Sequence to fold (884 residues):
Amino acid sequence: MDSARWDRIQNLFHEAADLSPADQKTFLQEACHGDQQLVTEVLAMLDQDAGGHSFLDRNLADLAKQTLANSAPASLLPKTFGPYRILKLLGEGGMGVVYLAERTDLGTQVAVKVLRDAWLSPARRERFASEQRTLAQLNHPSIARLYDADTLDNGTPWFVMEFVDGIPITQYCREHKSSVEQRLRLFRSVCESVQHAHRNAVIHRDLKPSNILVKADGSVRLLDFGIAKQLESLDLPVDQTMTGLRMMTPAYASPEQVRGDQVGVSTDVYSLGVILYELLTGQLPFDLTGLTPAEAATIITEHDPGKPSSAAKRISHSDPNSLSVGKTAWADLDVLVLSAMHKDPLRRYRSVEALIRDVDHYLNGEPLEARPDALEYRIGKFVRRHRRAVAAAVAVFAVVVGLVAFFTVRLAKARDAAVAEAARTQRIQQFMLNLFEGGHQESGPSENLRVIALLDRGQQEARALNQDPRAQAELYETLGGIYQKLGKFDQADSLLQSALDRQKSISGPNSTEAANDLVALGFLRADQGNYKEAENLTREALTIDQSHVPQDPRAVAKATGALGQVLETAQLHDQAIPILEQAVHLQSVPGAEPDLARTLVSLAEANFLLGHYGQAESLNERALALDRQIYGEKHPLVAGDLLDLGNIQQQLGHYPEAEHYFRQTLDINAAWYGNDNPETASAMTSLAQALAYENRFDESEVLLRQALAIQENVYGKMHAHVAFALNTLGQLAIMRGDLQGAESDFSRVIEIYRAVYGDANSRVAIAISNLAGVYSQQKEYTHAEQLYRDAVERFTKAVSGDDVNTGIAHLKLGRTLLREKRYQDAEPETRAGYEILIKQTSASTSFIHAAREDLTAEYEALNQPEKAARFRAELANATPTTPR
Fold:
């Protein structure tokens, strides 16, 4: 044997010595590049070393283990303990032993990890406990879950986690001959799990394929947080000992890890880049075979990896199964991988979220954010994706340039990106829409929404694009959506109808493009209060999307969600809930999280209005978790979720809790939109409601007056947002005993709703019912009765005779008649309201409680004691909630 081969055997032996027996063989198979003789020789040395035949050659830990425990790994746990029964040994590592176990009472299989030799090192116990704490705080479908934890009778700690029956991600892709797109989608799932850990202030620090398993169903699980680190503890001194340096896998370790520098989220970004390199090329970026630790460290910290495309090209000559990727695609993949693996952490992707965005850009055929904005690159992307939209570039550019004049300084970066990509119509459209709804996760909207003149000019530009009807249709849809958000329904109607007509003529009446425009027009009809037509339009869109073969699951899911949302807006909650639940099921797939979050919000709203507060709270919390995962902590959609949770607490009478949620909402909206924005004003109004219920009337009125002034300044005197602030002012006036002020406020609300939505809209009926309540408190019962009867009739026509609001109006009419002692007239109204609400709301809602009180009084007055006794008993067995 020559000296070079002996040196190589020694180096491989030392690198494999600290690995578990299962990992040693995998490592050597990869490191020896098919040299089976070399693998055999190193394994023989490892077996000899593990046997420890010489007492003097044994290390202190081995001697201590033999002296104190004298047990094999399989005996660390008894065969049964608690509800668990050990089935077999899964593997051993330097710190722990993992067993497959069965929970005897449930029959489910789990993995049990036990700390070996716990008494030899307090630091090992702390690391083991740290991994346990880390798993406990992470709740993500792609991260193996922690189920249980305890200690044995001898003090040895253990914990139970999800058993993942899968194979490493690299092996999975190789065996399934996965395409580039399939590998990237799997990789994206890994990134999402790492991003979740980062949002919980956890850095994994040991990302590698053997810690990323793919199950038979294609789902990913991230494992082994044994050396994970809390972000707040990363400033502690780094362990510079050889033991500390071995607590990572050099091939996937970042340069700062190898140097022993402080690590952060960029450390995991680097490791993800290495994993992606291996997924795309089938090999690691650096060949560390036969190198000493010092030599390996030099390679990692000082050498740049070659391009993945070059590595793949070399492999393709010898491997017929190598990936088939075009030259242009490889150019983007090179940028994607090498940007994640940059030596300088500051020049990598700043977060896993940024890496995910570029993965999505690649999958969607869009320019990468990490790629230099070379003109030919942008134009090439545009031409490939929008060949027929080139003629629209100048018009779109003009609209965007006009819009950016209204941006604040914080939008500079997003503005520049938008101008640079102005030729790409689809991206521009979404960006423009997001300016007005707070949907863009890197920028806020304009501080001044008075952009009607600009939009009118954009409309004229769009009408001039007759030579490119597809681009014209898309711009009509975009501008129509913006007019809709500004409450300019007539202009929105004209534009959206024009968009639909053009799409039908271009792509056909049964195309997915036409279906998308039908959904947009359906949402407008719902805003206009024409719920029946809104429902018809969204049902037509859903039928079209379902008729295509093969179906586009995203389109079907989106149309299903839209139909459910329209039905919920129309207050047809019983019909909306099953459809929204179906949409939730369809949208519970990777990539549909934004749509899923919005559907969950609508489903929560339907349950809330039916009095199912526990279900509504659970759905809102799920939507909140999704929005925080997608957009971060300080996004307007997060604010909307917090607002909904506050409304639930307010409905339950938990006013301090409601105030807490509303203040978070206000803080986010004020930071995002500014202090003089209508969204900020809406949050002020909600907070003012909570303060009023806490009897903090002065604070409430100050906020409400400020909110009203903002809404009137932005929208003028006749707008739905103004009506919302006025309605809350009217409620506050009632609480303060200022019935004259309340009458004035509610009268203005009726006037606004009639002007905005038309006289037949259900919102007008709500405002009339509120005004009737003022007259009832003023003991003007005749006037109150007339208005309540008017409200019942309007609700019946606008929504249905079985709607919740119809039932509430019946109850209020019945109570007014009861106060006049007109028991014979009051009973059928109260009973009608009760029968409607008991079918659709929780039996403990305040309205049901009030109905039982009134029916008890009415039946007693009508000398019907048996019926009175029934409702008296129901009252005794129910706990009412606070009224809306």
